[in-house]
Each structure stands twice: as C-alpha cells, then as structure tokens.
Specification:
The complex is a heterotrimer. Chain A is mainly alpha-helical. Chain A has a domain at 6-43: Orthogonal Bundle (Histone, subunit A), CATH 1.10.20. Chain A has three helices and one strand; from the N terminus they run αααβ. Chain B is α+β, with helices and mostly antiparallel strands. Chain B folds into three domains: 3-286, no CATH class; 296-409, no CATH class; 417-475, Arc Repressor Mutant, subunit A, CATH 1.10.10.410. In chain B, the strands form four sheets. Chain B has a nine-stranded mixed β-sheet with strand order 2-6-7-10-1-11-12-13-14. Chain B has a three-stranded antiparallel β-sheet with strand order 5-4-15, with no helix packed on it. Chain B is elongated and about 100 Å long. The N and C termini of chain B lie far apart (81 Å). By secondary structure, chain C is an alpha/beta fold. Chain C folds into two domains: 7-308 and 381-480, Amidase signature (AS) enzymes (Alpha-Beta Complex), CATH 3.90.1300.10; 309-380, no CATH class. In chain C, strands 1-3-2-4-6-5-10-11-9-7-8 form an eleven-stranded mixed β-sheet, sandwiched between helices. In chain C, β10 (442-449) and β11 (455-462) form a beta hairpin. In chain C, α6 runs parallel beside α7 and α10 packs across α13 (376-396). The longest helix of chain C has 21 residues, at 376-396. Chain C is globular, with a radius of gyration of 21 Å. The chains are: A mainly alpha, B alpha+beta, C alpha/beta. Chains in contact: A-B, A-C, B-C. Chains A and C meet through α1 and α2 of A and α10, α11, α12, α13 and α14 of C. The complex binds zinc ion (ZN). Residues 20, 23, 25, 37-38, 40-41, 147 of chain B line the site of zinc ion.
Amino acid sequence: MARITLEDVEYVAGLAQLTLDDQAKQRLLKEMGEILAYVDKLNELDTDGIEPMMHVLDISNVFREDVVTGSLDRDAALRNAPKTDGEYFLVPRILDTE
Amino acid sequence: MEYEPVIGMEVHVEISTKSKVFCGCANEFDAPPNTHVCPICLGMPGVLPMLNRAMVEASIAVGLALDCTISRWSKMDRKNYFYPDQSKNYQISQYDLPLCHDGHLDIEVGGETRRIRIRRAHMEEDTARNVHTLGSGESGVDFNRCGVPLLEIVTEPDLHSAEEAHAYLTALKQILEYLDVSDCNMEEGSLRAEPNISIRPKGSEELGTKSEVKNIASFSGVQKAIEFEIRRHKKILDEGGAVQQETRGWDADKGLTIGQRLKESAHDYRYFPEPDLVPIVVDQAWEDTIRETLPELPLPRRARIREAYALSEFDAGVITATKPMADFYEATLSAGAPPKQAANWLMGDFQALLSDSKTEIQENKISPEQLAEMIALIEDATISGKIAKDLLAEMFDTGKDPKALVEEKGLVQISDAGELEAMIREVMESHPGPVADFRSGKHKAKGFLVGQVMKLTKGKGNPQLVNKILDEELEKT
Amino acid sequence: MTMTLDLHSRTAHELRDALRSGETTAVEIAQSYLDRIADVDSRVMAYLDLWEEYALEEAGALDERLAKGEDPGPLAGIPIALKDNFCTTHGTTGCASRILRNFESPYEGTVVTRLKDAGAVLLGKLNMDEFAMGSSTENSSVQPTHNPWDIDRVPGGSSGGAAASVAADEAAIALGSDTGGSIRQPAAFCGCIGMKPTYGRVSRYGLVAFASSLDQIGPFTKDVEDLALIMNVICGRDPLDATSADLPVPDYSESLGREVSDITIGLPKEFYTDALNDEMRAKVDAAVAVLKEQGARVIEVSLPHTDYGIAVYYIIAPAEASANLARFDGVRYGFRHPDAKTVEDLYKLSKSEGFGREVQRRIMLGTYVLSSGYYDAYYLKAQKVRALIRQDFDRAFEQCDVIITPTTPTAAFKLNEKIDDPLQMYLNDVYTNSANLAGVPGVSIPCGLTDTGLPAGMQIIGKPFDEETIIRVAHAYERNRGFDPGKPPLE
Ligand SMILES: [Zn+2]
C-alpha cells in the first residue's frame, strides 16, 4: 500500500471537518502511517472469493409497521441545542455553495 | 455543428407513508417547524433506525410498475457528507444494491413511442429544510422533513430533448399517482426532478461532459432548464471551449442556471453498508403479493378503455389521465351510462366545474351513480341536454340526486304534443310577421319562432317535438 | 441499621435476599453504597455524575412498594451504575467527552428502562474513555479513573469507571459496553466479572454508538450468580433495534451449580504465544486445571486468523466511528465553538475542540479507509478477513463448547505508560477483539492475583447466543477455584 502523505492527511481532515495545526498534521501523519503499515499485514492473506461480512447476524427483513407513534415536544427537541429561536435550530447563515 | 442532446433524469419522490421511514413521526407536510421530530430523526446520540415496511412495499410497487427487476437481496448504506440539512451527517440510502433496477417506462412524443430505460430506483431518507429568512441573518433548520421516505428513480441517458424529458416526467407522475404512493407535488417538493444534460455531435456515440441541474419546482421549469443548458453547452462547444462537469441551480425568475461551486471532496461520500439495519430480502412470494395489489396502469388502461368503449384515442387519453378520473368514468358506466355520453359529460361540463372550483374529482359531491342517472334522464327525454347543463351545476353544488332536483325545480321536459301545439299556436299568433316570412320562403325565420317557443316553455320544451310540431303548423295554411 | 456498614460489600443476590427477608431496606442499601462512594471515589474517580438524591428517592419508593407486598422486580433495591454512554433521562449523558458535556438525553435507552422496570436503583454515570475509544480510561475528557487494586495503575478501558466501581464496591452491578474488549479487559484489570454477550443479544438502542457492528452492552458483577441475575433482565429482542435477535432468552440462573463433565474446553494455540506474560499464563493454566478436575475435557484448537484481528478491528471500528461521530456538529446538541461564523467553522472548530486526541485520530483513520480509492483495499478487505475470523470460531466450536484464553496479555499497566503510543495501546485488545469481530459472547472472570497483587482475568468465549454455557463453566470455576480473590486494598 502506498504511504500516507501530508496531502492525504489534509484531504481527510477536510472530509472529516477537522481543523488541524501543523503539529497535529505531522503527528497524525506519523501515527496513521504506523497504524496503516500495521494493518497492511492483511495483504498477506489471499481473500479472493471470500464474501465480505456485512452482518455478524444472519437475519434479514426486520421492519417497523407504518404506524405514527408520536414526536417530541418542540421544547424537548430544542432543549439541548446551542442556539435556537424557539422554533428552529439556528446555524450561521448557509451560503448557496456547499 | 449539429448536436444531439443526451439527457438523464433523477427524480426524488416523497412516498406518502403515514410515518417516516426510520421512526414513528408523522409524515406530514406543512406542520409548524420541528414538531414532527423525535430522537431518531433528530439524530440524537444512541438512536437506531428501523425501516418502515410500507416504504419497502411502496418502492417495490413502483419498481414493478416500471418493469424493474426487484433485487432479491439488497441493503441500506450510509452516504457521508456534512450539511446542515442532515441530522446525522450521513444519509441512509442505497449504494451498490438498489431495491429496484433495470426497468423502463414507455413515453409518447410526437405520436411516437419511446422506451426510456430506468437504471435504478432506491430508497433513502429526505433531509431537513433550511430557511434563510429569519431576519437574524442566521439560517434555521426544520427537521420535520428529515426522515421522510424518499424513492430516487434514475434513468439511463435515453432522453434527447426537453420535450421528451417533459413527457417522461408526465408519464412517471401518472404512474406514481395511479399507484397512490405520492402526492407528486413539485411545488411542495414531494416530487423533485434533476436532469443531467450533455450534448454531442450528431452521430457520435461518445457522451459529452454533463451538467446536473437542481432546484427546479415545476415540469415546465425542467423543460426550460434543459433548453437553457443545451443552448449553454452549444455555445461553449461552438466557441471551442469545454463543458465543466458540475451541478447547477435553476433560477426560475431569471430563467437561467448558475454553477454551484462545490469542493472536489464534496463528492467523496465514503459509502459503506449501514450496520444498524439488516438486509432486505424480497422473495418471489413477496414480490407476487405486491404485484397482485398493483392497479391497472395508465397505458394498458387507456388501451382497454379505448377499445372496450369505442372511444377516440384522445378521449381515452383524457379519461385515463388520472386514476380517479378513470375510476369515476368506469363507475359511471357500471351504473348504466352509455360510454360516449359519459365521456362527453365527464370531459366537458363536469371537467369545467372541477377546474373552475379547483376540486379533485374524488372529492366532488357528484357520485358516478348520480351522473349516470342524469344521463339516463336525458336519454329517456325527461330533461333536455340544455337543462342537464344547469342540473349538473346544481348537483355539483348540492350533491343532490338529479331526479329529486328535477322534481324540486320542475325541470321535467314538456313532451306533451297537445300542450306544445297550443303554445306553438300562441307564438304563431302573436308573431304573424315571421310566420309570413317563413311561408314566403325565408326559412331562417323558423329559428326565431323556435326561440320564442322555448322561451314560453321556460326551456323545458322537448326540442325535437317543438321542431316537429312547428314544422307541421307552418306547413298548414 | 447495624448492618448498613457492610451492605456495599455484598453481592447483588445477597442484597436481594437481605431485602426480601426484611433484614434491610432499599434505602439502607442505597445509603451504604453512597457512603462507600463518598469514602473512596475521590481516589478511584469512577463516577462522573452521581445521583445521590434520585437514588434515595427511588429506593424509598421501592421500600413503600415492598411494604405493600408488591414485587418490584428481580433487581429490586440493587444499586446499579451505568457507563456514561447510556442515554438516561435523569442526569447527563456525556460519553466523557467535551463535545457532549451536560447533554440531557430526551429519551431513555431500552436497557435502562429494563433495569428500572426490574426495580434497580440507579446510582449515576461512570467514567470511560471518550466515546469508548481506549483501553485505559485515560482518554476521558473529565478525569482518569484509578485501579482500586493499585491507585497508580489504570483500570483498563474503555469501561474503566464501570469495572472500578464494582471492584471498589461503589456499585453492586455496573453496565458497560464492549466494542473490542471494553468490558472484559477492564474487568480483568480490576478483578471483577465482565461479560460481552453475543452481538444482538442485548438492545443497543440508547447506547451512544462507537462502532455499530461491534458494540454490545454487558454487565460487570461481583460473582457469577449476579451475572445470571442481570443477564436475565437485559437480554432479549427490542423492536427499536433491528440488530437485536428475535431468539428466546433462557433463564440464566438455571446454568448455576451445574456440572461441567460434559464440557469440552478449547485452548486456541494462537493465544498462548510468547507475547503472553508467564505469570498470566500460569494463572489461566491453573484455572483450566480446576475445570479439568471437575471433569471438563481440554483440547487444543486453532483460530488461525487471530493475528489479523487487531488489523481488521482498527479498520472497521474507526470507519464506523467516523460516521457515527459525524452527528456531533454543534447544531442540535453538544458543544458549539463560540467563534464559528460560518457553517464550515461551526463544524470544524466545534469538532476540533470538542473531540479529544484519540477520537480525532480514529475519525481520521476511519475517514481515510473509507475515502475514495481506499474502500476496497481497507474496508472491504477487512470485512473479508472478518468473515474468516468468524469462520475460525465456527470451526473451533465444532470441536469444543467454550474457548478459554487469558483476557489480557499482562495485568494492569501504569497510568501514562502507553498513552503516547496508540499502536501499543491498541495491541492491548489482542485477546478480546476477535470475539467482537465474530460476534460471539465472552466473559472475563478473575483467576487470581499476580505476585504484585494485581488481578488476572480468564476469558471464556462461547458459541453465538450460548451465554448459558459460559455462565455454567464460569460458575463451576468460581465454586471450585479454592481461593477467595478478595477485595482491593482501598481502606
Ligand atoms: Zn422522528
């Protein structure tokens, strides 16, 4: 496996919405590099034709029936929010671009 | 250069289950903000989703109606991205194993039938709504819509004009309405169409670079947005430029699309199987059970109705435009009405009453039995066609039976020859001029006399009889 | 009131009997535990949120019901404490994280409801590694917890507070969660019993998720009879958890006191390597000998992919965690950075300050292995090897009824000893994580003290949904081990 680069660390931090200072980036580069080097040992195994495990349990079709069971009071829904106007959860203005 | 547009369509349909897709909150439009929310759809720590069986069954029904293969084994996946319309910052969706795949929908454009291939239809959850008009300069998030069941239906790039795209959407909406699985209201967002457009030199097999257009709130908007994009792509290519692969937003007021500058990483969704939900296994028996509940679909129903009742292609199309209309029509026939007359009344005066009052046919006060009874009153000459028009309006307002109204208002047609003869004589006596004109060969004068007779009968004179007796009286000298 | 002083040192079933016989009251029991906590928790630091008033009120209400002749349930009056990742409508649910500090859950987890319905008196919330990520409880954003047997050592993790609280008699029973060993490893370090049931046996609804396909709730108890008692309450299908199995739950108390002469014990050769400390090995060998004496057959089995467990685990767990922790974004709950002026800042600043170093490391790792171009090489590969690991267990269980291993390669290590070396810390899970990957149940039971007076733990792993046999073997060992593991020298 190719070695993880500083650019990878920065790209992944962007995906994960984390902001890292230079020191943190360097530290993560080293630590992630070591862990990824360790997990490379999986490549010793030939897994061609092995079905990946999706679920440890062999069950399927677990559904709920289409019944309305109720909702939270709005006050309870908003209670833990850092910022609301009593109706909406508030966030800084969302711009058109994502 | 001559170009050929290549268009694919992604449609998101909100499925009108009673409760949301993963929790027991009501699936209702237009509630006050954040009142249809619970720990699950708010993505509170520790909650787990539980898939709504009705959503799976509605999705299979749509898949079958679109001639899709229903996956014997499928699963839900997590699609990871951060945005304030998300409660978990991942959306539960289906990635590589959609519930339905490889179907098609036949559309008619310019008298020709075209087969549009459906690549896939998969289940997912809708997102929250963001509002930007709170005055505080901040944005608000309303999670009522978050977790509403959504079916995403994706075509192959088989559409080649804005007109075809419009025809596809119309046909798809008709099917969804026939299945009664969605409100299909584009303004309310329960049906959202996102076309992707590319163009290529005519005759070329290679696909050009596509742009995808979002934020369109009507079928005509889709058509206009596609036309705009085709022009925009042409201009770029003609000037020797290259089209950017991008997502663009439709500005209905300005009639143009605007590029949405997305970061490259915005499309790295890191899909992986949703560990909190178990696989969905649809065996033949379950598929068959759902297939049995499918209503007759628009195209076969139109063909059958056209043939069975000897209607024109056009009439059959109007009658089967919506399932409630077609159901009403056939119920009227079951109550004994002749097919042609029933179609005429339904498409004519009745349709006008519905449109003028913005009433849905299934919510109107007239029953199919009442309409059939009214047509029978015309057929047995109890009332005239002219009276029937007023009668229908009265029935539409009150919901009363036509017979009762005819009696109540004294609308029974005068078909008593003696009575009519006396009235005709009276008219002839008081209008000697026109009588003389007629007899001297000015046959146009008869129309005036008929009018006078009808006036005297307050419109209740049997028109055929009035004409016949008047002719006889005028022949006498 | 004469007995109040020692109530906290009793087991749950002893308390139950004392309460039913009228020897004591629920309030006296609760007070005894609260006194004990007041006495030792400044040293152990197991509790994050202590519900003193609530516990006494609940205990008082139970006493009234008992006085009226009602049966408040199998856990009536038993003081139980919960890891801080259980959602409770009383108190806070913070996962020992800054990002969730002071979070008041608007709902209650299924297991919490079951405990209350069974009459348990809840004492409060216990320390843990932040979001259950760690093996020492040093990753708590609030405080480290200390091992009651040696205050300079870690209690293990991530359910370190839960293990320490039971070991130090600060709770009769505690519930924790186990994703890669987070119940069994701290139980071994603290000298109590800790069980991870089969994946799907206990509802996860209301357990703040770390790695959804691996997480499982389980208990810490003082003896095996208590284990049966609590398992009878928490197991069983939950309509709110699609991954909870719809299987009958046996009465685990019927596994107590039974013989083991028909039991075959498998010893996986891959676990007994040079990495295993000699002293730990000797303790487990002695424990196996006790069972052999009771008539159990002992054979060697092979779990050939054992060596790949950690690698598989450190791909799958961070991948799932990276998605599970994405929701902590400062919008609906939790910490929001005051300087955030844009949505992007809101996410980035809140997460970067709200999450600790280990959590950020795992989010980064998990995001990386799922990112475009790496999914097949890491995540898919890991899920394939995971299937092989499960297959290993299926094959081994064709030859034996339970598998016995040491729970940990060494006894409890010192605080700060491994905190700066994540890979070394991860290797601590080497004997425990394969049970999570395979979804099979496992228990850690004390099997003696090292020369330095630290507990050693033996792990008994069973077939899927066969917790009965594990409890039967564990109880046979406990009854016949011939020594009293004693109490930590906290006095
Ligand atoms: Zn909800």
